[in-house]
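ok here's SDR family NAD(P)-dependent oxidoreductase:
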Amino acid sequence: MGMMEGKVVVVTGAGGGIGRGIALAMAAAGGRVVANDLGVSLGGEGADAGPAQRVADEIVAAGGQAVANTDTVSTWAGAHRIVQCALDQFGRIDAVVNNAGNLRDRMFHKMNEDEWRSVIDVHLHGAFFVSRAAANHFRDQEGGAYVHMTSTSGLIGNFGQANYSAAKLGIVGLSKSIALDMARYRVRSNCIAPFAWSRMTDSIPATTPEEKARVERMKKMEAGKIAPMAVFLASDAAADVTAQIFAVRANEIMLMGQSRPLRSVHLGEGWTPEAIAATAIPAMRGQFYPLERSGDVISWDPI
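and the structure:
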């Protein structure tokens, strides 16, 4: 028996890349899968039921159980229809993988309202809506697992992704809150920051030799390498794992840090702006984080 035997899992954004790999792995581990995907472009244009259906058909052809779903994660009603699909088809829901995503990259000072809202809607609102749609079922059955996709673009930083970075760091806060609020019901919530070559990373510009070399290194990071961690976190084997952030890159798994105080300074008579400038900041400056992006911090080649 596989680690997901008897369980029903919703995978959003399952039509390709990381989501497809997770959906196939969940089914291979014995899970029954709702493969959700709108089949739109990275910018949100068009809609095609084909990607979700192809993944569902692939699972069924391999002897598994799956159904395709094309509802949007970005609305309350759409998210509830996704979860209801699992209930209608398989009678229950045990895990949610919030993987659906889009990109509207633009430098912050050029980003418009639509580029901001469209990314927040899919990533952050989508993660909340789908998670919330499953929450009452998890609570009533006293068990369930959430697996959310975050990104080092949010955890560390990146160029031209203010919308994406804000959404992905917001997902970390959402996951922690879910873990705290639903621990009493034995519901777990964790994040994965995936490094993988997919349709989303295929949009990364590569005009200089350095950028082209970086892209070639990224192509070695297979999307399917993310799936084992997602299956583990959704399974009963992870019953004592919650509120964590894991980065997965090729054959590496990294446990990511979370915000904690680094240094504290105290002044008995209280602080003035001048005292802060003269004393507090110099005392803390050694622990300041430099202005880095993801590639500067995780700079070694994939293993």
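+1. The chain has a mean pLDDT of 93.
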